[in-house]
Design brief:
Length: about 600
């Protein structure tokens, strides 16, 4: 196992920012502040009442929506060019569009208890973590450390409605008792230390929308409206953000086709561009669904070793919801369910280390603890870092489908994703960013305008030279070229049409391999004066800080990369292919980059 310093160095080579457990309530607050700072208005107290799609053959293509203003209870009708449904798992937009979901609606109902406890945080400091799996004869659940320093927690508990309900089983007093059962027996806690913030319920599902758009690509689904995963792996919010990242630039470009001075519908297939959103993102959602289910199965190995497996919970759900049970009063159903759950948790009493060391219970408990330790030591349970799926996925559908299938196999998941390799197809399970069409442009460090920046930000920086913050501006593709090839690229792009050039920024990466710095600087100056590019950005690669060899990979075989507005590589040209690099070839590659799947 690598040291902490080695781990941090390896992670730093992948991205300028690192993975973080960030609670949704805090993310929403941060997002609100960001929107306000950027002059984006958010209307509160307005809900969707109805949505009508344009009829086939209709002259108007705009969806019509009816909105209800809750403060005045008045209705407002309006038509919009596009509607985006980001309205969650119970999406009304999805329902009104008649889009079905495919998969399992309810794998397990879960009760969430959100609370604070300084005593629990103090007890957890000996073994700080993001997730704790709690098994004892009183409670079974997953404890999530929202903020260990502030003592903020969420406890997730298997839940069996309608025999159980939040009002009946999760009152403030009951929730405080649950928290006490989480605490080690040697930890004393006063009543005021436990503050119950909320208790609620949700259903863990595994579903993906049959389609991501409706009304001839006028209505789109993003986030939980389009997919729901089990939380194992933490893909829910990340996948939703990726959806929006993929969709917004395509919507913006489609809207800009109506600008007389911009790219036109003759240059791109607008409908194909917007259809590509669903094609590209649906595969990612399906893969993440499969992976989340695989992660759930891996987490079940420990409960199974403790004789309290998920299979038992499923059996309980079938029993209490069977036809004979439904004939009984709900109170009787509740009592039977609670008795069965009590019996089901009896094996966990054997884990009590206060039992007599010579007793049979203690021996069985030791055996169960040994089984759990073996599972964890051999990495047979849930991992925590999934860089291939978080940032290493590809919009090249066949390539990603095959790769993801291998990465989901136990033989791969049992290994450290950072430090072991064993897949055997020339690739390895260690995530190492590569220059491939469909994948995110790799991270390495550069300097520009006396600032240190990641290559992940060069598309944004190049765009800002054209579109100052706060301005809508034009959608920008970024042409990334090594300094030694810039003259050939600038010459080839002189034939770009003004409509295309308006959407292309040039980024020149300078380094020690540049043989003629003076000439390169002259070419960059020439490019800035020309009309071939909307902007030109010169960056100096910091070669001694790029530990993942991404820069060496680029200069070794790649000459030019076309990067989409979402940061994914749309096209690549190798050094020996530059003779075929022309303005026409770039235009054609942009067409392909619109829809990679």
């Amino acid at each position: 196992m690598a040291s902490g310093d080695s781990l941090r160095k390896s992670l730093a080579a992948l991205s300028p920012t690192q993975f973080l457990h960030f609670p949704q309530n805090r993310f929403e607050t941060l997002l609100d502040e960001f929107l306000t700072e950027n002059g984006v208005g958010v209307e509160r107290g307005v809900e969707l009442e109805s949505l009508k799609l344009p009829l086939d053959g209709s002259a108007t293509k705009q969806p019509e929506v009816t909105l209800r203003h809750l403060d005045t209870n008045t209705l407002e009708k309006a038509s919009y060019d596009y509607v985006v449904g980001a309205d969650g798992a119970h999406s009304l937009v999805r329902e009104l569009c008649g889009i079905d979901m495919v998969g399992t609606r309810n794998l397990q109902s879960i009760a969430n208890v959100h609370f604070t406890s300084k005593a629990l945080s103090e007890a957890a400091r000996e073994n700080p973590a993001m997730l704790y799996f709690v098994f004892n004869k009183d409670v079974v659940g997953i404890l999530i450390a929202h903020d260990l320093n502030k003592g903020e927690w969420v406890f997730q508990i298997p839940f069996f409605p309608p025999q159980e309900s939040i009002p009946w089983d999760f009152s403030t007093a009951q929730c405080k008792q649950i928290v006490r059962h989480i605490l080690p027996k040697n930890v004393q806690v006063i009543d005021d230390d436990i503050n119950i913030l909320s208790a609620g319920q949700w259903r863990m599902g595994a579903r993906v929308a049959k389609q991501y758009d409706a009304g001839e690509q006028r209505v789109f689904l993003v986030g939980d409206a389009a997919h729901q995963f089990p939380p194992a792996g933490g893909f829910g919010m990340n996948t939703g953000l990726q959806d929006a990242h993929n969709l917004v630039w395509k919507l913006a470009l489609a809207i800009q086709t109506s600008d007389a001075n911009s790219i036109t519908s003759d240059d791109i297939d607008t409908q194909g561009l917007l259809r590509s959103y669903g094609r590209e993102r649906q595969l990612i959602a399906k893969t993440n669904t499969q992976f989340s289910l695989s992660n759930v199965a891996r987490t079940m190995k420990i409960p199974r070793a403790l004789n309290v497996s998920h299979d038992n919970a499923q059996t309980l759900a079938k029993i209490i919801n069977s036809a004979p049970m439904q004939l009984l009063p709900l109170s009787a159903q509740r009592e039977i369910a609670q008795r069965i759950m009590g019996v089901g948790k009896l094996p966990l009493g054997l884990l009590d280390e206060t039992k007599d060391a010579g007793g049979s219970g203690s021996a069985l408990g030791n055996r169960m603890r040994a089984s759990v330790k073996d599972i964890v030591t051999r990495r047979k349970t849930l991992g925590m870092m999934f860089y291939h799926f978080d940032i290493g996925f590809s919009y090249d559908a066949p390539v990603w489908a095959a790769r993801a299938k291998k990465l989901m196999e136990d033989s791969a998941l049992d290994q450290s994703v950072m430090f072991r390799t064993n897949i055997g197809d020339g690739d390895n399970i260690v995530y190492s960013p590569t220059f491939r069409v469909g994948e995110r442009f790799p991270h390495f460090w550069c300097t520009t305008d006396n600032s240190k920046v990641s290559t992940l930000d060069i598309t944004r920086l190049a765009s800002q030279k054209v579109n100052p913050p706060g301005n809508t501006g034009t959608v920008q593709f970024t042409l990334v070229v090594g300094g030694w090839n810039v003259a050939r690229v600038v010459d080839a792009c002189s034939s770009l049409s003004p409509a295309i050039a308006k959407h292309v920024s040039l980024v020149v990466l300078r380094s020690s391999v540049d043989s003629d710095s003076t000439n390169i600087e002259a070419v960059i100056t020439q490019a800035r004066k020309s009309s071939s590019f909307s902007s030109v950005l010169s960056c100096q690669v910091i070669e001694d800080e790029n530990g993942n060899n991404a820069w060496a990979n680029f200069i070794g075989s790649k000459a030019v990369a076309l990067v989409r507005p979402d940061g994914h590589v749309g096209a690549l040209w190798k050094t020996h292919e530059l003779d075929a690099f022309t303005g026409a070839a770039l235009t054609q590659s942009m067409q392909h980059a619109f829809q990679l799947s």
